[in-house]
Amino acid sequence: MPFDVDQVSQRLGGRTVLWLTETDSTMNDAARLAALGAASGTVVGAERQTAGQGRHGRSWYSEAGLGLYFSVILRIALPADELPVATLALGLAAAECITQLTGLAVDLRWPNDVLVGERKVCGILIQQQQENLICGLGLNVNHTAFPEELASIATSLRLETGREFAFEPLFIDLILSIDRHLEILTTQGKEAILRLFTQASSYVVGRRVVIDQGETALRGTTAGLDENGFLILQGDDGKRTVVLAGGVRPA
Amino acid sequence: MTIEEIREIIRLVTETGVGEIEVQRGENRVWIKRQASEPPPLPYVTPVAQPVFAPAVPPVTPPAASGTPQTPPSASPPTAEEKLPVITAPIVGTYYEAPSPGAEPFVKVGDTVQPGQVLCIIESMKLMNEIEAETAGVIVAKLVPNGKPVEYGEALFTYRPI
Prior knowledge:
The structure holds two protein chains of two kinds. Chain A is of the alpha+beta class. Chain A contains seven helices and twelve strands.
């Protein structure tokens, strides 16, 4: 069944939704549209991505027809230094939507990996180009298996529930949940998002983790978020570090 | 789907350089493919509502000395009395000189950059902020090692405006 763009767009109040049969990455398409002035809220999705993007040159495994792969263009009226908190808000949005639709208990691994158990079900990335935020989201929906190198770290809604899911209701609820959480961010401020994130994530306080910093790795116990949403790590060497970015993994 | 909507899609496809697009509305499916001979997509359009960075020091326009030939801007180190403008970090994050590990850096010392050209990425949580040149210039120095944290307002590059 092809993705029913008409139904989806209607349910989202006539929002512009472009759905491509195939593209390299919806991030590139959305960035081009954003640069041309496409409205905030415009979505570009694809049934198949040949080069789905992850963080900093990593790829996102995008098997045709099994996952939801889309990018949303957002312009948020916040100072530049508060915009990164949107990554936490998007993680919360996806986690809440998945729980409500599937009944699964989900966890958030800072900053915004959505996990079921220890396995990742949804990945989120934002690229900022001037005032445009291009927010990419990949959700593993109906996969029954993953390639060997991903099998221990990835999962899908179907693998976790034994059920198949239609894409349209998932997509609609994800977009509405994103809208709601961004509204919390812009109206109640970043503190509200940090509070919700701290409640929703087992990674924020008291978690033993290793943090990949490229050439080095930090090992320690998490000690909450700072006022900007960065993760505080109480290192095993006694030093406290503010983690700005980087892969957080259980130790 | 109305003819206006189809026109709009064609306009987007033409302007964005998307090679191929399929849009479905109810029973209607439109599939548009650009010819390979089309001109390349338009360069990045930059109507800046909120500048991503501002030079910490206003660019100094070199006096157009009459009679003497003007030397082209170079990447040579600044002389003692010369104060070159810098490009600063708009957010706290990790500085990356290249789009992915091992890839060619966005810019090297001596490169001439144009407004809108990406100079580096600062990653903050999982937001990758592409820092762009605001004015044309020659990169004189890269001030931060790849992968290092930067503070708000920290100088990333010095450049000589053209």
